[in-house]
């Protein structure tokens, strides 16, 4: 491809609201352009990368035995009403009416469509299992589209759905997708972790994993072990807490000292209480009042810990969960917010495991401006509902191995595998006849990859001050040939010869045939991030070129033939 | 691919409203399924065909130097308001609001988006010309979706747009797309004609061609010459009419007989007048009153001819044109509908060329229940506005060659190339600086292919009573291997061996490994329409098979090796 003909400009400046590096770089390099908030055009360079990712996804899906189809974007609203998601999905679901006033949704996902499709096509166990996938434009009206392709409103997704006759079958289908995902992200050259995620009310044990591209900009927190391969997202991650020291700071054996009520005027927050009493936050027991399905409950966590509402909601089996307002707290505890405590509490108390390991602690006294000291869990309040209700924190013990400690990373969710079970097959009637002629619901799994998001995730992981650094497998071109001066015949001749030879090898080559200054050309090349660059300059007459590897920016002056050999070696997997 | 795992069922019955053969066959063969009116899912077999068509389109677009990108489906309504099409487009444009109540349209086409994109990327003649294309799902809320994929509401389209600095440049870009289209439809194995079409107010001479797949179900009429390569759609086709006989049926020389008013009670239609007076429809001059931009005009055509409203509208330069209602006709002619005539008419009269060639004719008398005989064009009414205002009819003389006569075909529009000129670049401000530093509007062309419609068009052209007959280049698989009995080891072994050998040659093979009766298998195979079928039956033990060519259904019993050779010969272009 001649760069003089390539559509798309490089930009010096990008909008101030482009916060993420990937967003800025893809705008600057002319890979994408915004049409509306969260809605982008892929220019030829960006589209080439996307097509390569798509190709890898397709190859690995096919290899895993999944069959490709294409479902419509426009979905009748009745389907969503049948599954019960039409209202639940909220304003993220884009709704429209056709000319006959019939309601439609623009598909953010296709469980409804695929389940009714399979319901109509398959009625016997003989035709199962089957895994189906599509690569398609999806629509989701995000409240706050941001970071370019990372959180868009119209995006490219691969979604797959498996249908089995048993949970063991589902496990195999799931495993097969899990492995395909691992190959896909590996082949794309991504640094990622597959992490356990919360499956909510369905999915069962090991029922869902998220594939996270590690990147600072990521909106998700991944918790992983320094020693073993344990990894989970923050909603799901558990940890181990050792029993705290059995001696308090004054040297007295704790647990034997009786509770004491102390006047603590205007000390509501953990920080205020700690400062006032001269204790550490981890010596305080924090009491929070929630309303779960309209019933108040209290949850206790250590003062330095955060409640994990997903864990709490799962433990309660609640549909809804939210922090109680001031009135509800007052009614439930007899005290204003900031002075609640478990002693004498009338509502159910859910005690985080780390609190059960405390020898004693400070709590609210359920009375304005008073706290209790020397409160002993199990002695002064019941531990009937103990469990893991908090976010794991860095430094906690790994729940899987004895030795490791937990650490945090930031991640971008690029894939998700999920055991749906019979949620949709029950609701939408996707049944099959088993060998005994009995009707059974199909056991489903669903599997998504954010195809366009990968573009951004890789850019986040792989760039420097000067531009993007594409992994060879998904680079828009593999080699960038740059004659420094297109007015110099030796340079243009050698550059063209290299272009022809590389192209003949099956490589994709961009040649910068523009009549521009060398600095402009080199800047654009750095921005584009093509893995190998051959600069054909003054040494062209002697058959020598400068070979630059984009990642390291290492340069070597070598003969044109040697450059060909180096590139062939470097790209052996692609030729 | 093992047929036992293939997703999608063959159907015996299809809905009664599936009128078109392609619609019925693709439903029956399990290629597509309807989700809502005009909205379809492509099952794996249908999707494979579609992907092959897509691949051919992409290859030929790239070969023609067009660059691929992808624009969003969701387009801000402001863009459509800026171009002036938001209201004009009517209910076919699907409209929606996002969560912030901003208006969007779902793209039925992308002139607005591409023009503003190019406006922002290109500002100098140095960066032109450029042709950009995408293959994308389009949305059009058809009033009456029908014929399966032939007229859908969500469909796959290739749309391309060219940007030039001159009309000569546009001509080259246009020609390049025209040739690419010819290669695409040839490669897809389609029978088609490129026909001249009406370019309306813009486009200029030779400004637009439609690519028509010939098929009876087609909604368009193509007019072509029996002798030369003239072809146009009915809106555009012109023809040559010889002067009528200069002697009337009574033997008197016509043109010298004066007009005569005749009482013709209740004879309003051409048929009634012809019957009452004992003349032929082509001896009658039909007078129709239209309202063009709110002004009444009359148009005269021969009694056996139809007014071509597009030609009339173009000649009038009118924005709107519709038949006058009874009141307007009464006011304009002084007579009720059915008795209008040119003699003494006060409103402008547009006379079709075929009428100017009549020696004399019968017309209305502008008086209820009266007609005039022996009316001579040019003598009894003016021919100031004469022209081609009628549809060409079969048997008319060809406007291009001396010898041919015109004939009709039915066609399905599968492609369209159009010289847009500066319509969008002027409205949306897509200007560039010419070598003199002066701002000029870009000269545009647009080029569409109905990718999913091709699937149906080919099925219409290529099927028989038993099913679809796919051209090899786009068949879902090229070879269908059918062991008659999967319980017979000799058969399954030989079938598997053939499957492996054919696959190793790079062919796509479907093997019917189902435990079904031979009749079921053969019926399904006929329905699928895979070009070559190898039936592995009782002769398998002796290494012999039956090779069936789907198109002819010719069978030959030959050795497995000979079958391999026959197939390799037949599919030489694909291997």
TrEMBL record, chains A, B:
Main localization of the protein described in the UniProt heading: cytoplasm
Matches recorded under CDD domains: ProRS-INS (cd04334), ProRS_anticodon_short (cd00861), ProRS_core_prok (cd00779)
PROSITE patterns found in the cross-reference section: AA_TRNA_LIGASE_II
GO biological process, one term: prolyl-tRNA aminoacylation
Domain spans labelled Aminoacyl-transfer RNA synthetases class-II family profile: 38-471
Subcellular location: Cytoplasm
GO cellular component: cytosol
Keyword Metal-binding: no
Keyword Plastid included in the entry's annotation: no
Record's catalysed reaction(s): tRNA(Pro) + L-proline + ATP = L-prolyl-tRNA(Pro) + AMP + diphosphate
Domain notes: Consists of three domains: the N-terminal catalytic domain, the editing domain and the C-terminal anticodon-binding domain.
Task of the protein: Catalyzes the attachment of proline to tRNA(Pro) in a two-step reaction: proline is first activated by ATP to form Pro-AMP and then transferred to the acceptor end of tRNA(Pro). As ProRS can inadvertently accommodate and process non-cognate amino acids such as alanine and cysteine, to avoid such errors it has two additional distinct editing activities against alanine. One activity is designated as 'pretransfer' editing and involves the tRNA(Pro)-independent hydrolysis of activated Ala-AMP.
Quaternary structure, from the entry: Homodimer.
Family: Belongs to the class-II aminoacyl-tRNA synthetase family. ProS type 1 subfamily.
UniProt-listed HAMAP family: Pro_tRNA_synth_type1
Name of the protein this chain belongs to: Proline--tRNA ligase
